[in-house]
Amino acid sequence: MTATLRFEDKIAVLDLGEDENRFSPDWLDSVDQLLDQALSEGAHALVTTATGKFYSNGLDLDWLGANGDKAKWYVQQVQSLFARMLTFPMPTVAAINGHAFGAGAMLGIAHDYRVMRDDRGYYCFPEVDINIPFTEGMAALIQAKLSPASAIVAMTTGRRYGGSDAFAAGLVDFTASVDALTAKAIEMVAPIGPKNAGTLGAIKSTMFASVVTALNTDG
Ligand SMILES: C/C=C/C(=O)SCCNC(=O)CCNC(=O)[C@H](O)C(C)(C)COP(=O)(O)OP(=O)(O)OC[C@H]1O[C@@H](n2cnc3c(N)ncnc32)[C@H](O)[C@@H]1OP(=O)(O)O
């Protein structure tokens, strides 16, 4: 479950871990710290991916079940990560190496771009089938990135999208073989080059101001 950060030239590659990469409080802390590190070490862009067959299976429902009294705090922690990724002051791309469900799918959507493995793994918002309605912030996040027609299907049917289906629906920008996935993600953002972090962060914060407000006040 350990998240790690490495650099490929000036591109920070954040690996979310090697199991289901559920959003436990410890995992959220470690990802937050690695994002700090990407910034402090001067990355020009950020790629997130994971090892194995999961990008992320989403909320840590076992932890939540055992800590129901902390549910509000927990959802705020999760939504803070979404808001941070949505406005992260460098180009971001999620290299979706496998299953991305629920909050894992939302984390992917919060990036600027997405590339998904073409042969295995599902991109899925299962909330309608597991009886966990989206918060206003979560709904705003997904709807900010998908067309209305794609959002209706993705958010209200629980459809599991393989790579080619996710591309057709506009959930991802590219597909690639698993071996080429990280390289494709780097190829997407490396040519953009370094941008002024204050300026890019301000642009994204303005573009997504209403989503960030919903993510910060909701939960
Ligand atoms: C607001 C709330 C937010 C939240 O976050 S709530 C929490 C949300 N999270 C969840 O609900 C977790 C959901 N996750 C799961 O149910 C499971 O963790 C998975 C289904 C993701 C994985 O389960 P596994 O038993 O490990 O299945 P497999 O071996 O990875 O694959 C299942 C079958 O699906 C096929 N398959 C996988 N990818 C594709 C693809 N892209 N195109 C076609 N088929 C695919 C495989 O081959 C296999 O099939 P074959 O069983 O016949 O071998």
UniProtKB/TrEMBL annotation:
It is an enzyme of class 4 (lyase). GO terms for molecular function: delta(3)-delta(2)-enoyl-CoA isomerase activity; enoyl-CoA hydratase activity. GO terms for biological process: fatty acid beta-oxidation. This is Putative enoyl-CoA hydratase. Its EC number is 4.2.1.17. Keywords: Lipid metabolism, Lyase. The keyword Lyase applies. Coiled coil: none annotated.
